[in-house]
Backbone:
């Protein structure tokens, strides 16, 4: 299972739609749609820069939610998970947030800075809305692993390493044993993310998890493509290059690319 992350509004809301379609064609099974936030606790420099670009286009939580039916209308059929921090949800109001999420066809929500022990109201509202509330579990969760994993919905997001998101050359030696422990307790598919940026890492991790989450590597590729994505005469070539890159990263999963 391939779960890519992109930031809503980066480098432009219209391009977000086309990038999502390219990832679907590259074999994505679920799309994580990030919401730009000015104080992104879990995000490293690459995604922080994507946040800055998206904020320049006035992207925010309601606009990101309203982008989902646009994605559907343009042909995105895979489930869409909204990745947002808790403060924007609090400012919007939890109940109104889930009203918008339900009305616009969001399949799940992921709030990385909301501890499991403080998420009861969010999980209750998500269940009432018929939306999966994705939980995160990290190597530091230790005695909490069983409680978090046994209550997970949709899929369980396993954080591969400590710190913020970003491209990493190596992954922790203890990651395999951590994933095997999580899988003992989880009733839903287990996906691993944070730092996965090479096909070799994907090849290793596919034997210990049900899904691979890739964010910073894809966002970095978008950043490198830069203005080529924004100009009509170079956009399609840039989208094809982005799609091939995603397929290259996930080749060990057996996905096919059809640009």
Residues:
């Amino acid at each position: 299972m391939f779960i890519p992350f992109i930031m809503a509004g980066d480098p432009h809301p219209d391009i977000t739609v086309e990038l999502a379609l390219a990832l679907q064609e590259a074999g994505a099974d679920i799309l994580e749609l990030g919401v730009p936030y000015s104080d992104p606790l879990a995000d490293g420099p690459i995604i922080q820069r994507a946040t800055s670009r998206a904020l320049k286009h006035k992207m925010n939580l309601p606009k990101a939610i309203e982008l989902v039916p646009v994605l559907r209308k343009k042909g995105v059929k895979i489930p869409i998970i909204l990745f947002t921090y808790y403060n924007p949800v609090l400012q919007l109001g939890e109940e109104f947030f889930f009203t918008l999420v339900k009305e616009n066809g969001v399949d799940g929500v992921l709030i990385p800075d909301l501890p499991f022990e403080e998420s009861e109201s969010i999980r209750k509202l998500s269940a009432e809305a018929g939306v999966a509330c994705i939980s995160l579990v990290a190597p530091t969760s230790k005695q909490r692993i069983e409680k978090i994993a046994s209550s997970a919905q949709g899929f369980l997001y396993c954080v591969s390493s400590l710190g913020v998101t970003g491209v990493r050359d190596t992954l922790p030696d203890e990651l395999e044993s951590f994933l095997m422990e999580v899988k003992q307790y989880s009733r839903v598919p287990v996906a691993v993310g944070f730092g996965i940026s090479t096909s070799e890492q994907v090849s290793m991790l596919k034997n210990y998890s049900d899904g691979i989450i890739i964010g910073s590597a894809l966002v970095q590729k978008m950043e490198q493509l830069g203005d080529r994505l924004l100009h009509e005469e170079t956009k399609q070539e840039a989208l094809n290059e982005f799609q091939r890159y995603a397929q290259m990263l996930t080749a060990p999963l057996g996905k096919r690319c059809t640009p």
Remarks:
- The beta strands are 2-7, 31-34, 80-83, 108-110, 132-137, 156-159, 190-193, 211-214.
- The first strand starts at residue 2 and ends at 7.
